[in-house]
């Protein structure tokens, strides 16, 4: 009888432990390239909340923080090796060493919801799996342009010669072609670099530069804009395979919704930041049409030349699949 009671006790304990273990959510340890309060992270928490709510305890995304957790340029290696499970917001340009194709993302003429129609999205899924051992989920922000911010008044392309411009790898080819010197430094150091005249300018999207207080040390924003914002959301592939299919579908479905929501919110933030820049005394400079056309041609030609040379396997495919011409007719009601 004592043996039976002991055995029964062990069975009850085993069942309790088993239930506890299997009912615990699968946790994804996640980071962002920028601090939590940065404007570029505006809709990250919204994405997390929607996924967590719909997964109903089956899966939980935990946003640990930004570069204070893992340095921004180190995050992609940490994801590849599995030290991190997920990166919620990470510029493609930060992945150049591991993913030479990354430069093509900013050049795309399409939003991610359009790239799903042309096959470009599927190409990125394949590239992420091969290069960084990750499942590409999508990008929260589309169509928002990058800008050149300077402390020197630019009225023609010749004015760039001899300048020192803070860059991430994405900008290096065309900055060199303009006759300027690219200086690679982390975003957190741009303010000090501008203040101390270590650099004469920097590239950044039209959203987010005020989060670093850069309007305080910058005189000009040069127009037109170029490229488009290209923040990747991705999950370590080994971790992705552990996620139940139902939860995988929820993550992808939420991202598809958030692509529209996040882009529209960033457009509103962009308008607010323009006002903040003007209030801080910045001046917006519109290049003359001929100079503007030359600038955009140099940016496009030099960056594509780099992609095609360094990524011969995928470069030509991406170039073809990321143009407006690649969109199938009738893909959208307004076509």
CATH uppermost class of the domain at 25-143 and 229-268:
Alpha Beta
Shape call = globular
Share of helical residues: 40-55%
The overall pLDDT average reads 90
Describe the structure.
The protein is α/β, with parallel strands linked by helices and 335 residues long. The protein has a domain at 25-143 and 229-268: Bacterial extracellular solute-binding protein, family 7 (D-Maltodextrin-Binding Protein, domain 2, 3-Layer(aba) Sandwich). It is 44% helix and 18% strand. The chain is built from 12 helices and 11 strands. It has helices spanning 2-23, 44-55, 75-81, 103-107, 112-118, 120-132, 172-177, 190-195, 237-242, 245-279, 289-310, 315-321; strands at residues 26-32, 59-65, 86-91, 134-138, 146-150, 164-167, 181-184, 201-205, 220-226, 231-236, 283-286. Strand 1 (26-32), helix 2 and strand 2 (59-65) form a beta-alpha-beta unit. Helix 2 runs antiparallel to helix 10 (245-279). The protein is globular and about 60 Å long. The model is unreliable at 1-22 (pLDDT under 50).
Task: Reconstruct the topology from this structure.
Layout: H1 2-23, E1 26-32, H2 44-55, E2 59-65, H3 75-81, E3 86-91, H4 103-107, H5 112-118, H6 120-132, E4 134-138, E5 146-150, E6 164-167, H7 172-177, E7 181-184, H8 190-195, E8 201-205, E9 220-226, E10 231-236, H9 237-242, H10 245-279, E11 283-286, H11 289-310, H12 315-321
Parallel strand pairs: 1-2, 1-3, 6-7, 6-8, 9-11
Antiparallel strand pairs: 3-10, 4-10, 5-8, 5-9
Helix pairs in contact: 2-10
């Amino acid at each position: 009888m004592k043996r039976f009671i002991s055995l029964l006790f062990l069975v009850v304990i085993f069942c309790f432990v088993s239930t506890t273990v299997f009912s615990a959510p699968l946790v994804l340890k996640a980071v962002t390239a920028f601090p939590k309060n940065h404007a570029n992270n505006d809709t990250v928490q919204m994405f997390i909340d929607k996924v967590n709510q719909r997964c109903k305890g089956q899966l939980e995304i935990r946003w640990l923080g930004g570069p204070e957790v893992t340095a921004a340029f180190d995050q992609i290696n940490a994801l590849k090796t599995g030290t991190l499970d997920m990166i919620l917001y990470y510029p493609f340009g930060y992945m150049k060493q591991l993913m030479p194709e990354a430069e093509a993302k900013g050049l795309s003429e399409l939003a991610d919801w359009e790239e799903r129609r042309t096959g470009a999205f599927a190409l990125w899924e394949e590239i992420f799996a091969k290069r960084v051992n990750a499942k590409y989920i999508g990008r929260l922000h589309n169509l928002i342009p990058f800008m050149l911010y300077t402390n020197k008044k630019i009225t023609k392309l010749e004015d760039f010669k001899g300048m020192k411009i803070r860059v991430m790898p994405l900008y290096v080819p065309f900055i060199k072609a303009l006759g300027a010197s690219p200086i690679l430094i982390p975003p957190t150091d741009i303010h000090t670099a501008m203040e101390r005249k270590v650099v004469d300018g920097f590239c950044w999207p039209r959203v987010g530069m005020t989060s670093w207080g850069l309007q305080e040390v910058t005189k000009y924003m040069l127009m037109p804009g170029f490229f488009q914002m290209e923040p990747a959301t991705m999950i370590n592939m080994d971790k992705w395979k552990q996620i139940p299919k139902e939860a995988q579908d929820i993550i992808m479905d939420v991202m598809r919704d958030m692509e529209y929501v996040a882009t529209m919110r960033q457009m509103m933030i962009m308008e607010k930041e323009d006002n903040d820049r003007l209030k801080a005394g910045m001046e917006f400079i519109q290049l003359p049409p001929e100079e503007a056309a030359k600038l955009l041609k140099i940016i496009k030609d030099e960056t594509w030349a780099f992609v095609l040379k360094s990524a011969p396997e995928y470069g030509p495919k991406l170039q073809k699949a990321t143009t407006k011409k690649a969109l199938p007719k009738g893909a959208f009601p307004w076509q």
